[in-house]
Amino acid sequence: SPVDGESTHNAGESVNLTATPDQGWQFDKWEINGNTVTSASTQITINANTTATATFSVIPATTYTLTVSHVGNGTVSPVDGESTHNDGESVNLTATPDQGWKFDKWEINGNTVTSASTQITINANTTAIATFSVINSVDVIENNLKIYPNPTNSYISIESKNVIKNIQVLDLIGCAHYSSHLITKTITNIDLSNLPSGIYLIRVVEIDDKVQVIKVFKK
Fold first, then answer.
1. Pairing of strands 101-108, 111-113
2. Alpha-carbon distances of 180 from 68, 165, 190, 204, rounded to whole Å
3. Is the dihedral of CA 32, 37, 38, 43 positive or negative?
4. Per-residue model confidence as pLDDT tens digits over 157-188
5. For residues 75 and 40, what is the distance between their CA atoms, to the nearest angstrom?
6. How confident is the model at residue 133 (pLDDT cuts 50, 70, 90)?
7. 25-32 and 137-141 as β-strands: parallel, antiparallel, unpaired?
């Protein structure tokens, strides 16, 4: 104020200049006949032809850094690393465990969240750490056969209510990596430490020729 354009004033007349920024903008300065005034409201005296130009600039958005990482085997979204977000921005965090692992928790700026998928609002620099742990399970098949631990680093134990006749360890394309016959035991151990990491099929034949197959995860 006055609005953009020309106006006529008497010599010695005082005029109030006021600059009001729009939302998201800020006032920077007045340039009055080459002189800089940093106050948005100022009074001038007209004693010559005068040019007054107000300058506004966009208010820079406040941004924060989100740092995501994980412990154990799994994937997270956003992926591990840093990303920049505007103040007040919402971000979805998702943690997906690999096979043989389970999601435990998110640690978000020291706060624990037990849901694998959660939404956070960025209003400060934020660190989010997902934790996964190995599922140390005992697989029970039809209540008479147990294979454990699964996943395993080396040995697995096979326990049956019936006598085990033979056991094979196969990969997913059917190639045999281990075969044992005439075991005649209800409990036996198999060493998988020499096998590469991956998924294997344990084929167990009991004394009554009943065949059972289970997947085992070798770490």
1. antiparallel
2. 47, 8, 10, 10
3. negative
4. 998 888 888 899 988 777 889 988 877 888 88
5. 52
6. confident
7. unpaired
pLDDT digits (tens, 9 = 90+) for 47-80: 999 999 999 999 988 999 999 999 888 899 999 9
- Beta-bridge partner residues of 180: 167
Can you tell me the distance from the alpha carbon of 27 to that of 59, in angstroms, rounded to the nearest whole number?
9
* Res. 144 pLDDT band, cuts 50 70 90: confident
For residue 98, pLDDT beyond 70? yes
Residue closest to 183 by CA, chosen among 167, 165, 157, 197:
165
Q: Which amino acid is at 217?
A: F
Q: Enumerate residues 6+ apart whose C-beta is below 8 A from 174.
A: none
Nearest to 167 by CA among 202, 200, 194: 202
Dihedral sign, Cα of residue 26, residue 32, residue 37, residue 40 = negative
Whether the CB-CB separation of 154 and 192 falls below 8 Å is answered with yes
Distance CA 191, CA 202 (A): 12
Instruction: Give the number of other Cβ atoms within 10 Å of residue 204's Cβ.
Output: 22
- pTM over 0.70? The answer is no
pLDDT tens, 197-217?
988 888 888 888 888 888 888
Exposure pattern of 147-172 as b/e (b: 16+ CB <10 Å)?
bbbbbbeeebebbbeeebbbbbbbee
Give the C-alpha separation, 130 to 38, whole Å: 49
